[in-house]
From TrEMBL:
The active site is at Y61 (proton donor). GO terms for molecular function: oxidoreductase activity. Gene3D superfamilies: NADP-dependent oxidoreductase domain (3.20.20.100). InterPro entries: AKR (IPR020471), Aldo/ket_reductase_CS (IPR018170), NAD(P)_OxRdtase_dom_sf (IPR036812), NADP_OxRdtase_dom (IPR023210). The keyword Oxidoreductase applies. Keywords: Oxidoreductase. It comes from Ascobolus immersus RN42. The record marks K89 as: Lowers pKa of active site Tyr. This is Aldo/keto reductase. Substrate binds at H122.
């Protein structure tokens, strides 16, 4: 029988569960959102009322205040903190231990929360921040004062590309240790990574005292990443699918949602293409999925569970087209970011 709501995924070695359906809060310029115009707040509230219990955000998305306002309103209506799983991430210029701490402190203030359920390293690639003001003595992790020390913008090169920090891009030990310290201090209940390959995960697993519980990556039928899925299952790392509908950054007709196999199943079933894709991601593959929509009806519709037959799941597995939609190589002046070797273009 088809379940009414999507399941929670449990990690056998950890005492926590993560709701398999999460609401994604990245609103690209295509969404029509302008500044803090309230659209993310409205959408998060719609999602919470529709039964989503997992909200995915990030410092980069510049919407944590709105997420915080929506959560506050939902708590005021009777929602409880422990019922909702909140993820945030630190951006690439904040990989140094102090900035990992400062970024989470700033995120928590914007979210109006004491802790997040999951704190992620957004990318394995690290940029340099702009220099510290000369007047400020560099604090340590223990002398950090949020009133005095703030995260800084990205330092850019004369060609406009971000200035890479090669040491912290190739070696994540100090960044991970800082995340472990935040976990021990109770500022985040779990720690994990995003945009990591099998090789990158193996490295972290080697030195981690607190293991990464999640790897959040682009996943959909055009980018199913079966080796990564298998590796994560073997290591009890939950794989979270971002852009599960094929991303908002490309033209509608290019999206996975417009794929003929997906369309055919949706038509036959009388459901939406998004429901087909989310069923495949969550019920068939055992991943978390983080769909975004700026439309109230679609937010609600995406939470409706549709169970497909093995034959239908098999037909989606059989889609041969391959496409990665999220790729910053050009913008960042790097290549092979996903191969985990970061080589600057000359
Ligand atoms: N860790 C990372 O590096 C990373 C990178 C990218 C994304 N993410 C996370 O993953 C989330 C989702 O990814 P995404 O936003 O790139 O893409 P997505 O969820 O795959 O696709 C979103 C797009 O699909 C449309 N859509 C949603 N429901 C639909 C439906 N039922 N029918 C037709 N169209 C529908 C939305 O348009 P409407 O708004 O018009 O409905 C939007 O344009 C993000 O919001 C973010 O939280 C993380």
């Amino acid at each position: 029988m088809t379940p009414k709501t999507y399941p929670y995924l449990h990690l056998p070695h950890y005492d926590f569960c993560i709701p398999a359906l999460g609401y994604g809060t990245y609103f690209s310029p295509r969404s029509g959102r302008e500044g803090n115009d309230g659209s993310v707040k409205r959408s998060v509230l719609t999602a919470l009322k529709a039964g989503y219990r997992h909200i995915d955000t990030a410092a980069l998305y510049e919407c944590e205040e709105e997420v915080g306002e929506a959560l506050r309103e939902w708590f005021d209506m009777g929602g409880r903190r422990e019922e909702v799983f909140v993820t945030t991430k630190f951006w690439n210029q904040n990989h140094s231990p102090l900035d990992v701490l400062a970024s989470l402190t700033e995120s928590l203030a914007r979210l109006q929360l004491d802790y997040v359920d999951l704190y992620l390293m957004h990318w394995p690639i690290s940029f340099n921040p702009t220099p510290l003001p000369a007047s400020l003595d560099a604090p340590t992790f223990d002398t950090y004062d949020p009133a005095l020390y703030h995260t800084r913008p990205i330092a850019t090169l004369p060609n406009g590309k971000p200035s890479l920090n090669r040491d912290l891009s190739y070696n994540h030990i100090s960044t991970w240790e800082a995340m472990e310290e935040l976990y021990r201090r109770g500022l985040c209940r779990n720690i994990g990574v995003s945009n990591f390959t099998v090789k990158g995960l193996m490295e972290v697993c080697e030195y981690a005292e607190v293991k990464p519980v999640v790897n959040q990556v682009e996943l959909h039928p055009y980018l199913p990443q079966p080796e990564l899925l298998q590796f994560c299952k073997e290591r009890d790392i939950i794989l979270c699918a971002y852009s599960p509908l094929g991303s908002q950054t490309v033209e509608k007709e290019e999206r996975v949602i417009a794929d003929p196999v997906v369309r055919g199943i949706a038509e036959k079933r009388g459901c939406t293409e998004a429901q087909v894709l989310l069923s495949w991601a969550i019920l068939h593959r055992g991943t978390v999925a983080l769909p975004m929509s700026s439309d109230e009806g679609r937010i609600r519709g995406n939470s409706v569970v549709v169970e497909l037959t093995e034959e239908e799941y098999g037909a989606i597995d059989g889609i041969e087209k391959r496409k990665r939609f999220v790729n910053f190589d050009e913008e960042w002046g790097v290549r092979e970011a996903f191969g985990h070797g970061i080589f600057e273009y000359q």
